[in-house]
C-alpha cells in the first residue's frame, strides 16, 4: 500500500509540476496575477497608514519608532564602551606617571645627600690647606 501511495504522489507531483510551470509562464497568468497583486499591495499600504495614524493618535510607539530607539541605544552603548576604554587608558597612564614621580622623589633625596657630602668634603679640604 505504501509503495502505491508513494508512486501516486510522485506521479501527481511530476504532472502538477509540469502543469504549474506551463501555467506560470503564460501571459494570462501574469495578467491575472498582477491584477490581484497590485490591489493587495494597495490594501497593505492603506492598513500600514491607518495603523500609523492610530498609533500616533493614542501615543503608542510604532515598530519603526522602537527600532529607531533600539538603534540609538546600540550607538550609545558603542560610544560608552569607547569612552570607558579611554578612561581606563587615561587612568593607567596616570598610574604610570605617579609611579615615575614617586621614583624620582625617592631617588632625589639620595642625590641631594651625595651632592651635600661632596660639597662638604671640598670645604673641609680647603680649610685644612
UniProtKB/TrEMBL annotation:
Any coiled-coil regions, as ranges: 66-93
UniProt keywords, alphabetically: Coiled coil
Domain of life: Bacteria
Protein name: Poly(3-hydroxyalkanoate) polymerase subunit PhaE
Species: Muiribacterium halophilum
Phylogenetic classification of the source organism: Bacteria, Candidatus Muiribacteriota, Candidatus Muiribacteriia, Candidatus Muiribacteriales, Candidatus Muiribacteriaceae
Amino acid at each position: 500500500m505504501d509503495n502505491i501511495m508513494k508512486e501516486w504522489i510522485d506521479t501527481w507531483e511530476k504532472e502538477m509540476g509540469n502543469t504549474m510551470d506551463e501555467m506560470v509562464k503564460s501571459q494570462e497568468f501574469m495578467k491575472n496575477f498582477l491584477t490581484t497583486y497590485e490591489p493587495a499591495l494597495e490594501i497593505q499600504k492603506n492598513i500600514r497608514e491607518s495603523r500609523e495614524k492610530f498609533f500616533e493618535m493614542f501615543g503608542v510607539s510604532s515598530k519603526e519608532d522602537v527600532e529607531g530607539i533600539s538603534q540609538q541605544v546600540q550607538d550609545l552603548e558603542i560610544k560608552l564602551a569607547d569612552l570607558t576604554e579611554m578612561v581606563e587608558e587615561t587612568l593607567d597612564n596616570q598610574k604610570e606617571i605617579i609611579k615615575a614621580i614617586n621614583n624620582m622623589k625617592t631617588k632625589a633625596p639620595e642625590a641631594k645627600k651625595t651632592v651635600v657630602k661632596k660639597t662638604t668634603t671640598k670645604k673641609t679640604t680647603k680649610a685644612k690647606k
